[in-house]
Amino acid sequence: MKVGFIGLGHMGAGMAANLLRANHDVAVYNRTRAKADALVALGATTAASIAEVARADVVISMLANDASVEAVVGGEQGVVSNLAPGAVHISSSTISVALSEKLAAAHHDAGQLFVAAPVFGRPDVAAAGKLFIIAAGAPDSIAIVQPLFDAIGQRTFIVSETPKVANLVKLSGNFLIASVIESLGEAMALVSKGGVDRHQYLDILTSTLFNAPIYKTYGTLIADGKFEPAGFAAPLGQKDIRLTLAAAEDLRVPLPLASLLRDRFLTLLAHGGDTLDWSAIGQLAAMDAGATEEWYRSKEPAPSPTH
Amino acid sequence: MKVGFIGLGHMGAGMAANLLRANHDVAVYNRTRAKADALVALGATTAASIAEVARADVVISMLANDASVEAVVGGEQGVVSNLAPGAVHISSSTISVALSEKLAAAHHDAGQLFVAAPVFGRPDVAAAGKLFIIAAGAPDSIAIVQPLFDAIGQRTFIVSETPKVANLVKLSGNFLIASVIESLGEAMALVSKGGVDRHQYLDILTSTLFNAPIYKTYGTLIADGKFEPAGFAAPLGQKDIRLTLAAAEDLRVPLPLASLLRDRFLTLLAHGGDTLDWSAIGQLAAMDAGATEEWYRSKEPAPSPTH
Amino acid sequence: MKVGFIGLGHMGAGMAANLLRANHDVAVYNRTRAKADALVALGATTAASIAEVARADVVISMLANDASVEAVVGGEQGVVSNLAPGAVHISSSTISVALSEKLAAAHHDAGQLFVAAPVFGRPDVAAAGKLFIIAAGAPDSIAIVQPLFDAIGQRTFIVSETPKVANLVKLSGNFLIASVIESLGEAMALVSKGGVDRHQYLDILTSTLFNAPIYKTYGTLIADGKFEPAGFAAPLGQKDIRLTLAAAEDLRVPLPLASLLRDRFLTLLAHGGDTLDWSAIGQLAAMDAGATEEWYRSKEPAPSPTH
Amino acid sequence: MKVGFIGLGHMGAGMAANLLRANHDVAVYNRTRAKADALVALGATTAASIAEVARADVVISMLANDASVEAVVGGEQGVVSNLAPGAVHISSSTISVALSEKLAAAHHDAGQLFVAAPVFGRPDVAAAGKLFIIAAGAPDSIAIVQPLFDAIGQRTFIVSETPKVANLVKLSGNFLIASVIESLGEAMALVSKGGVDRHQYLDILTSTLFNAPIYKTYGTLIADGKFEPAGFAAPLGQKDIRLTLAAAEDLRVPLPLASLLRDRFLTLLAHGGDTLDWSAIGQLAAMDAGATEEWYRSKEPAPSPTH
């Protein structure tokens, strides 16, 4: 299949490589051209513009946020204006439910197909072609692109015929991870102020009831108090909770735990946490308890972003 | 070793049986004698009173709550008055940190030894001798009873020389489980109101990031909306969150997620949830969202317990 | 002064009338012309379009929400395109901080002046010319319009030279009122389940520590459980809390009480509360406690707005 | 009437003085005798023991907390053992609902009468005889002591025939005050980070919608950031919220705002806030927002009270 790929970040680069390995004909586009070089070595061609990369059977976009996606989709040089009727746009970015709905409408009006297909998995999983794909869209559209999903992932979950529903599922997954971070943060604050070593405590948890990688991964970060360099930066975590709450507001679903997470992220960012891993919210409970050295004591309070 | 065992509930019965299988000399005591019969068949003797069962090298108590433990420990016929100097009391019940501290002091004053050793694992795990034991106490005391731990569990974690610390760790574990329930409840309320099937959603979660038995177990209960019969009843869950918050208050550790759980349990109990499994708090988010049939609609509101 | 007035709702009608009484030359515009008749009797002229009403020394807009304001401000027929250089736009609507910032920029680019001047007071206060005006803008601009403020209000508070700051203060005021509602709702749920009559309780509060009209007004609504007809409808309350949280997010200020209020409003709206007064969130605590007849029991759950 | 008065703190001293001014025959008892001198000058006699002061028609106790009340009530030398059958004990202390219930039962068993009568008002109000009295008890009992209430207060509210209900009302009042503090703290954090002067903001609030002394009093403390010396110390505030939550738990009433206040007080106490006024929780929102100088930066974290 002739595939155009937009967005060669940590995730996109691995995904595009696996499409090439599955012998698809892949053209890549990225704002910074250097990132395309490794893929060219694997057989990719490079496109000089969004318009050019959009002339394909399927375009896949894998970008950081709503603004980045809107920037490549709209306008005369954008995906919608240049994708052929009947061709498919797969949006794999973690974006808002509202934007996904807008994209579906725009492609529909242009006689094109649209599939939302965010993924679960970190960059190493993307590189290994072992992602989990959460897909939603018209069954015919998904049938067309299933071979691509098979190239980049180990399993595809089709959750709805309405694309935005896949985005909702993806956001809810990040909410659940952040909930694990918060719960571990509170539990560790409690037991460590009570005299228990945090690493031993984590060993107990992950040896018994919580033997999932996610508890191991985030528990270690919190026990170590080591939040740099960021695997997934705090502002991205804050964005995903914001999008979760926005989707929940549209659906009129109160989510008190998500509200708590929102406040945690704002506290973190208000104290200069922008460069930290999102798991740094897991240290706020200990700080409230006066049970840890505040990492921000040595820093100046962050300037307000609007002053 | 000559062991006295108090409390032959679902957990205690399995633990006592494994002590017998390891060839310890076990006398058992239970308020309802019938429960002792199966153990007698395995070689146990029965004691007619607490005082009698306490005349042993080691007494193990495994009871439902603080009140039950206080009832067997104090008074002329209680454990403290009848245990020999130098003998050990192992408290495996999930009790308050404050009561554990009182027990440690009482045994110390009587020249006896005290080890707190709550366990992780459900009745089937206890029957299989595969419990995880969270132990705290003086190293000498723990050394004496380690053979007993080896008989009932697969691994012992020694967390402190101060007994009450083991109780704190146990309570924190139940807090973490309740947090999983709440987070699943919110996520399921959100995606199901958004049009996703709850069972498919749970399959996605447990196939990907949350492949731990705890997510499978509790997620299924919430997706099914089936909370009876109770595996662990709501009032016990409410009690454990109350004890967690009480311990946190003494240590001055604010726990906003535990506070949320507290309010969830009270809402559940206020609507007649006493006989439900504690995972029923996982349906409250959906109810707040108007996204599920309220299970309590057909019931009268529960009468206030004090009026 | 030659004044154009846009928005003759309950608030705007009273404000425009008082400008006429102070002998200003007022042209009015409203989507539904009938509302202008009473003002014409007081000496107003009617404008056939936004463009026409904008040809004045000062334009005042008093509309329901961001969307309404954006609809009259932009486009070729809008306020910005038709207001003369050096003329002033006073925005008295309760709008988002972000929109206020956009308006300020648009007017600045067009060589016009902009003052944000939301007000405190209900329709009867507006009719009596006794509003409190929260104003922000360049001192020169405010000096120009001060005579108009004197005509509609009893006092003007100038809080900043940056217009959007006045909108922030207005939103924070509505947050504080909603906080009073929530706190009264919780206190009444508690004491009424404990056996105290809610009206007697309110009499105690307002006779002692809480002798402010706001406690009397909202406490009576909650004690009566009478939320229709709405003085200020729940969706407007929900909007204001949403805008408060949005402003707080931009400033990185976590507001846990505002988060709680957000969840309360969503619960209310999820159960068909759109037509109720916003004080109906004050009955949710009693419902969670099983201490009141649920008003929504007889209703079908509200359909999700997006399905 | 022959009155015995126990507890000559800031509140009790004023109350006892007003009983003397109303020509009652008052014997006083206090742990520190010096406090009785001023009252002796007004005509009081001093009692050498609780037993002695309890030999009266009516005994009034006005003490700091549950423990102090239990210490004077029980035992052979306590109030219950020494009060005559048919005589009345008025408990004016802010105590738990549970203790009030126990006191009622103990007096009932001893053939004595019991009235709970906590008060609203600060020491200056007590000195002026202008307290508000929240009374509950059997109508006959209250009729007996009404002349005493008239001597110390400006108005008596009789809320129930069950004494503990008066304690519930009193606790709920302190919860409402703490709610005002929290809401002001959040609003001030928001607007001050947005550029508004806190004192001007408070002036706006108290000139408009929130013209109650309680907003003026607590708003000034928060705007000044001046929490020492404490008018009502943080540990007392924390205690009252704890007792409110305990009463709510018994009645199964979830109170999310009270839960938030609980966490705020624990955060304050965890950072050395024991000597501060309880309104210091009103600065925590600004601290979370990085918008104020942390008062505790210069202090060592408070040691855990149990380690």
Automatic annotation (TrEMBL), chains A, B, C, D:
Chain ranges of the 3-hydroxyisobutyrate dehydrogenase-like NAD-binding domain: 167-282
A GO BP entry: organic acid catabolic process
Active site positions: K170
Annotated keywords: NAD, Oxidoreductase
The keyword Metal-binding is annotated on this UniProt entry: no
Keyword Repeat attributed: no
Domain (6-phosphogluconate dehydrogenase NADP-binding): residue spans on this chain: 2-157
Protein name: 3-hydroxyisobutyrate dehydrogenase-like beta-hydroxyacid dehydrogenase
Organism annotation: Phyllobacterium trifolii
Source lineage: Bacteria, Pseudomonadati, Pseudomonadota, Alphaproteobacteria, Hyphomicrobiales
